[in-house]
């Protein structure tokens, strides 16, 4: 079955960096656009970024543009999110998700938190 | 930018009663509309996609309707496991950006 498994979350300091990964299985990863979505504690869902199936096109939310980079390795069936210049407001659970074809599929998420 | 607005913010319903949740788009989104259920500590669970198609394994008491700017999620007879937060989600074809409603909390009356 279609499965997405995120990893790489953890505790960071403001200004730090972190790379999240999302391992995909059960579908043709190289044929699907992929997204990252996040959810701050007690808050709603916020779309973060998209990457086209071949990696040629990327889109970002204004809140992360210039700090986050989405990428993928189709040979490894893996999606990435490189997060730099992290801020306290980036604290959230980060989900990867498959573009609706016809329905979206989400992973279980990985948590990014900040140390004081 | 399309804005998705859900109402009400909180819905108090007794078990066995019908619940009707609304989602309004600031401009037409055709049928590019998804509904999720989310419980504390869990990822969103897909209920409805394409505005009205139930996802695999979703009970028939969940139904979605609407197109354009007005959408409705109906739970025909609330069960104890249905008390949760519900989100609507618009996916744009191109550019492929996603927009979410702010959520509706369905609580026990």
Description:
Chain A has 116 residues and is mostly beta strands. Chain A contains no helices and 11 strands. In chain A, strands 2, 4, 5, 6, 9, 10 and 11 form a 7-stranded mixed β-sheet that branches. A 4-stranded antiparallel β-sheet of chain A has the order 1-3-8-7, with no helix packed on it. In chain A, a hairpin with a 6-residue loop joins strand 5 and strand 6. Chain A is globular. Chain A starts with a strand and ends with a strand. Chain B is mainly β and 109 residues long. Chain B has no helices and 11 strands. The mean pLDDT of chain B is 96. At the A-B interface, strand 5 and strand 10 of A face strand 9 and strand 10 of B.
The helical percent of chain A reads under 10%
Strand-pairing-aware structural class of chain B? mainly beta
**Count of extended strands of chain B:** 11
Mean pLDDT of chain B: 96
- Tertiary shape of chain B: globular
Which stretches of chain B are low in confidence, meaning pLDDT under 50 for 5 or more residues running?
A: none
Structural class of chain A: mainly beta
User: Given the structure, what is the number of helices of chain A?
Assistant: 0
How would you summarize what this structure contains?
The complex is a heterodimer of chains A (116) and B (109). Chain A is an all-beta fold.
Secondary-structure blueprint:
The complex is a heterodimer of chains A (116) and B (109).
Chain A lengths: L2 E5 L2 E3 L5 E8 L8 E6 L5 E7 L6 E3 L7 E6 L4 E6 L8 E7 L6 E2 L3 E5 L2
Parallel strand pairs in A: 2-11
Antiparallel strand pairs in A: 1-3, 3-8, 4-5, 4-9, 5-6, 7-8, 9-10, 9-11
Chain B lengths: L3 E4 L2 E4 L5 E7 L7 E6 L6 E5 L3 E2 L7 E6 L2 E6 L9 E7 L6 E3 L3 E5 L1
Parallel strand pairs in B: 2-11
Antiparallel strand pairs in B: 1-3, 3-8, 4-5, 4-9, 5-6, 7-8, 9-10, 9-11
Name some characteristics of this structure.
heterodimer, A: 116 residues, mainly beta, seven-stranded mixed beta sheet, four-stranded antiparallel beta sheet, 11 strands, B: 109 residues, 0% helix
